[in-house]
Amino acid sequence: MIKKNIYVFFFMFVALCSQRTLAQGNQPGIFDGHNDIGKVKHKGSGGYDSKSQEYRLSGSGGNVWANHDEFHFMWKRMKGDFILRANTAFIGKGVEEHRKIGWMVRASLDSNSKHVSAVVHGAGLTSLQYRKTTAGVTEEKKFEMTSADVIQLERRGSTYTMSVARKGDLFVSQEINDIDLGDDVYVGLFICAHNPNVTESAVFDNVRIVTPAPANLVAYRQYLGSDIEILDLETQNSKIIYQSPKSLQAPNWLKDGKHLLYNSDGLLYTFDLKTNTPAVLNTGLAIHNNNDHVISFDGKWLAISSSDKSGNSIGWVLPVTGGEPRRINEIGPSYMHGWSPDGKYIVFCGSRNKEYDVYRIPATGGPEVRLTTAPGLDDGPEYSPDGKYIYFNSVRSGLMQVWRMKADGSEQTQLTNDDYNNWFPHVSPDGKWIEYITFLKSEVAPGDHPFYKHVYLRVMPVDGGPSKVVAYLYGGQGTINTPSWSPDSKHLAFVSNTNLLFPIFPIGK
């Protein structure tokens, strides 16, 4: 009898373990699960590749339309406001021109549920589709542009906004108001073959579920969590390498290509890219560091910006390996941004007589030289690798734009001229490209660069010219305040923000 009970217990244990393994396998990446919705002829599937951080879906189903749906859904339960974003692509030629992929928000997993969906069809039709009532008829708002491969769906209260782009382009948007799906919803990626006898497949990368800042967040006193991301410029696939509930800001890339440097809570940290672990960098008496820190071209020295006893940000220099800093500014506020290639000078943004301008100062300390005199904010100065130019951003034309001047301050020339606010130009180590961050003028005043906004990272030729978007994200202050190119000019490091952390990524305190 005892032996029999042991066998019964053993088989119950194996069955329980199998159930738990199956349940875990049904939770791909950042999602809670995936399953077919409605009556489908061929079972769908979904999976997550932790190395590439890509998701793959396969599914059948007749349609997502009319008063009921048939498709495969990879979902997560969510409440409140959120932003959903991904790069999407069908796999293979496909059978039906109206096969569908995209983001979906559903009130339930019933086939006739209310929903809002950001949809791209196999033939390129791009549309915002929605069912306002259970078992009601699906409605649609079509975009003029077609074949979008970057899809974003945002909920704010009862308003849903779909934003789409082809990779490299800026978003265009459609929105619907007064859609009541309830607060507790299912959000996720979906695929529908538009043919019950066919199974289609798709791949999704740069998949992000963001919980944005609440309306009552107190700026510079309350903070969202942070993701450190590494962007491959060739594929435009960005991978999250570290998450924290704290505000992490301004990742520099050290010259060894193996470490990042960032600031958080007044301290500086080095981040080991092999182990994905941070360590505090010794900055001596400078313990009120902000996100303006820059590494010398030879990789030996670090200029930091840290508040003195009066509360003013002041420039300091110390070895990149850490140590007691040496003060170089007598006046503040001063924010360090760029070393000259020969290591003799540092350029910074300084406030003098209620005007913020670009200044140059010897790295050993000494008299500072004012390089810009136009009214309004001039900020973010940085030398080109050949030392001939200083790139900076200026509000003098009305909106914040990227400018360039010779190293002596002469020939100040505007390089960007669009309907956005462009900040912090960073020149690639190979001297060919400029990366900068773009804020929407509908969200941000020209002279401001706050936290927690919709922003783009864009790249353009070093002499100016057409820009392309390389990353779509929720961030702003602290995203790329400092040079964030990898030494080989093939990758960018940056910070995005969310209040939602996922256990599949390394998470720090």
Summarize the structure.
The chain is mostly beta strands.
Radius of gyration: 25 Å
The total count of helices amounts to 1
Low-confidence sequence ranges = 1-25
Quickly name the level 1 CATH class of the largest domain.
Mainly Beta
The SS-based structural class is: mainly beta
Provide the number of structural domains: 2
Major pleated sheet: 7 strands, antiparallel
Average pLDDT works out at: 94
The tally of strands reads 39
Give an overview in words.
With 509 residues, the protein is mainly beta. It folds into 2 domains: 32-210, Sandwich (Jelly Rolls); 225-498, TolB, C-terminal domain (Neuraminidase, 6 Propeller). It contains 1 helix and 39 strands. It starts with a helix and ends in an 11-residue tail after the last strand. The model is unreliable at 1-25 (pLDDT under 50).
Features:
7-stranded antiparallel β-sheet, 5% helix, 47% strand, Neuraminidase, disordered N terminus, 509 residues, elongated, Jelly Rolls, mainly beta, 1 helix
